[in-house]
Amino acid sequence: MSGLVLKLGPHERVLINGAVIENGERRSRLAIMTPNANILRLRDAIHPEEANTPVRRVCYLAQLVLSGDADPADTQRQLLRGIEQLSQVLTDHDSRTQLAAASRAVLDDQHYQALKALRSLLPREERLFAAGRA
Fold first, then answer.
1. Which residue has the higher pLDDT, 49 or 41?
2. In this structure, are 51 and 35 located in the same domain?
């Protein structure tokens, strides 16, 4: 079996190509066989008012594409510009690796992979903001 396998907890919700799917009472697995399906776990979703930091804003843009609320072609330039701006601040090797992966994913119209790479930067951003407040 190929494709993406989603493991869902009881009553967990996921957005697949614009449709909200809610799991039943038990844990389950879904095999997504359609290549390039737009998938977003709603527990991972960033709400508009939470897009209040540089990394969160870029994640939110990628999320809008996945949810079908933004056109990939129209959003590509904004995403790449945001990633470039982040690369000027997050200069460590690990961050650069994730930002490069996000850029490649955006250019390849793999917005889930872009979001995944960008989300990995959220803990680092949080630590930087915490250090700045100390």
1. 49
2. no
Same domain flag for 63 and 27 = no
Is the CB of residue 39 less than 8 Å from the CB of residue 64? no
- pLDDT of 128: 87
Tell me: do 72 and 102 sit in the same domain.
yes
Domain region containing 77: 47-133
Q: Which two tokens stand for residue 46?
A: 């960033």
The residue to which tokens 């879904």 are assigned: 30
Contact predicate 38/18, CB 8 Å: yes
Residue 35: band (very low, low, confident or very high) from pLDDT cuts 50, 70, 90:
confident
Pair 21, 47: CB distance under 8 Å: no
